[in-house]
Amino acid sequence: LLAMQMPTLFEGDITGFRAEEFSSKHLQDSSSDPFSFPHNTAVNLETFPEKLWENARVPYALDDKLTGAERMAIAQAFLEYNQKTCVRFVPKLKTDQDYVLIKKNKRLGCSSFVGRAGGNQTLSLEVEKCFSKGIIAHELMHVLGFFHEHSRTDRDNFVRIIESNVLPGMLKNFEKYSNSILDTLKMPYDYGSVMHYHKLAFSKNGRATIVPYRRKTNIGQRFQLSEIDAAKINKLYNCHNRFKGKITKIDTGPQTNKQLCSDSHDHCKLWTDLGHCKWSKKYMKDHCKLSCGLCKSDKTNAKHFIR
């Protein structure tokens, strides 16, 4: 987790913004009523409307130098979003002008822009330190327009920042942001968010820099999107209204071989190419039978799709 933090980057892993742009000195709220302040974690779309990805579609391109294992970690993070949100990371088309280029580096940590930056924006992942599903999911939330959880306007009600333990010059990474920068999502503070700093973030002495007021609470997990993370994404991208009907479960009743031998998702071929038929067997069996060559009685289709 500490490998994600780079002293030269805003908040350790955010590119495209200067710390002074978000300093509380320059972003004072006009309201004198502290109870009117919203609960913030996402970029304010009224201030930065261009930051949202249109139709919850995020085109991407992968660095040619990525290994199979590195591609697999990225695919697992994409699958996490596919299972929990309406956001879709899709291979870049020739017509896509704005897209995310996912590259690897050797010593530069993990970093991303916040929201859609315009043109080719890089998501950079350090070899052997950043290629896990949870860390990549964290960086992808930045891509979608989210800041770190501890940046919320109301964070002092939930955590205490121990400034004396923070590395010199790194207090900029613990800023709170004005509601002119961050939008109100009316979500509870999430200690379990994949976007929350670890308690030792930017520590100079191995002691906690962030202490939760709730006792025996762990912060800084980098395994998966929390339920609240997913709810925030779905709210920011208006996911509920993107589906005109309820998402139905796959029919498990009697089916013909033609019905069985089909894919229920547009990305099945991509996931097959990335190895998910092996690493995500249950999901792929349920949703991507055709691409994984699991239609055993149809030898032609199976032979065609086996990689």
From TrEMBL:
Binds 1 zinc ion per subunit. Its cofactor is Zn(2+). Disulfide bonds join C261-C295. The keyword Hydrolase applies. Residues 40-240 form the Peptidase M12A domain. Zn(2+) binds at H138, H142, H148. InterPro entries: Astacin-like_dom (IPR034035), MetalloPept_cat_dom_sf (IPR024079), Peptidase_M12A (IPR001506), Peptidase_Metallo (IPR006026), ShKT_dom (IPR003582). It holds the Pfam family ShK. One of its GO terms (molecular function) is metalloendopeptidase activity. One of its GO terms (biological process) is proteolysis. It is an enzyme of class 3 (hydrolase). Its EC number is 3.4.24.-. Keywords: Disulfide bond, Glycoprotein, Hydrolase, Metal-binding, Metalloprotease, Protease, Signal, Zinc, Zymogen. Residues 261-295 form the ShKT domain. The active site is at E139. PANTHER family: DISCOIDIN, CUB, EGF, LAMININ , AND ZINC METALLOPROTEASE DOMAIN CONTAINING (PTHR10127), METALLOENDOPEPTIDASE (PTHR10127:SF780). Metalloprotease. This is Metalloendopeptidase. It comes from Trichinella britovi.
